[in-house]
Design goal:
single chain; mainly alpha; 56% helix; 0% strand; globular
Length: 321
């Protein structure tokens, strides 16, 4: 991670070493990256320059891909380790117009990365399940003030309580008030609980142009093949950036997944990790619930499902089954 040392720290070190009254170099288009790079080149002490390389734009691109890979990997510990770097990268990307869409994606994922860090710090890492003996699902210990159980018939969703506490104190993004009426209407018209439209907050923080390194785009982070499957154009125009059209496609996809898997937590897992992966996990572990297959799913999905379920409960009072 040598070239991904915190950009903000580098800029601060350079600015601290700058002569009294020195002005920050003009960034031209106001790009913090260019300004910070010039500050570092001009004023960073030699010992800092010797120890650290300033990250290039390619480094940022590689870092975003590393985050995507960690989300798709199986280790919460690996995902959690990106928390400080992700915060620093987001600070810079927010000031760089060329990274605006990727920054929206990274901001949404940072919530999952930070929750993974909390989960890792608050409990010991579980032992790896034996291929011959599937590990039992984790059952959280009841506690005072615990939110309602997701379902009386299925095991509790792992990390649901963690997410319920996190989301209870977090306000909705600014775009939510403007977008949610239309999104709810689109979901309802497709026969899907309108409360599920809040999945847009988890996917993109309500940014219609958010883009992931995996090629997903829009409020609901639909990949091109999924978008086309449910009737959207992805080229001139890319209808994934149209709130109403993308909402209808997302609702149809979620309805299809619910019909296939029989529960919303499993449908949400398949929305994130893919239908095939969820089907294979259910078969391999002889399970019928998300809790039963969670250890076999990517780290990002293990955070994503309780995040969606808890967020819907906090925003609407509805418990998904």
């Amino acid at each position: 991670m040598r070239r991904l040392f915190r950009l903000s720290a580098l800029a601060a070190a350079a600015a601290t070493a700058a002569p009294l009254g020195a002005q920050a170099p003009a960034g031209g288009n106001g790009d913090l990256y260019d300004t910070a790079k010039q500050l570092f080149d001009q004023y960073a002490p030699p010992e800092v320059k010797q120890q650290y390389d300033f990250p290039t734009r390619a480094d940022f691109d590689r870092f975003v891909q590393k985050v995507q890979d960690a989300l798709e990997g199986g280790s919460l510990q690996e995902l959690a380790q990106y928390e400080p770097q992700a915060r620093a990268a987001l600070l810079v990307m927010r000031q760089s117009p060329q990274y605006a869409d990727s920054a929206d994606w990274l901001e949404a994922r940072l919530n999952e990365i930070d929750a993974a860090r909390t989960a890792v710090e608050s409990e010991p890492a579980p032992p790896a399940p034996s291929p011959a003996q599937p590990a039992p699902p984790r059952v959280p210990v009841p506690e005072a003030g615990r939110p309602p159980a997701t379902s009386a018939a299925r095991p509790p969703i792992p990390y649901y309580e963690l997410w319920y506490r996190r989301e209870s104190g977090r306000p909705a993004p600014a775009n939510a008030a403007r977008l949610m009426p239309g999104l709810r209407s689109a979901f309802a018209s497709e026969g899907v609980p309108p409360e599920l439209a809040w999945i847009a907050e988890v996917e993109s923080s309500f940014s219609p142009t958010a883009a992931s390194p995996a090629g997903a785009r829009g409020l609901f982070q639909l990949k091109a093949d999924t978008a086309k499957r449910f009737g959207l154009s992805t080229f001139l125009p890319d209808e994934r950036t149209d709130p109403e059209k993308s909402a209808r496609a997302s609702a149809r996809y979620l309805r299809t997944l619910h019909e296939r898997f029989g529960s919303w937590p499993l449908a949400i897992a398949a929305y994130n990790a893919g239908e095939g992966r969820v089907s294979r996990a259910l078969a391999a572990r002889h399970a019928d619930s998300f809790a039963g297959i969670a250890p076999a799913l990517p780290a990002g999905t293990r955070m994503y499902v309780p995040e969606v379920c808890a967020l819907v409960a906090v925003r609407t009072g509805r418990n998904l089954r």
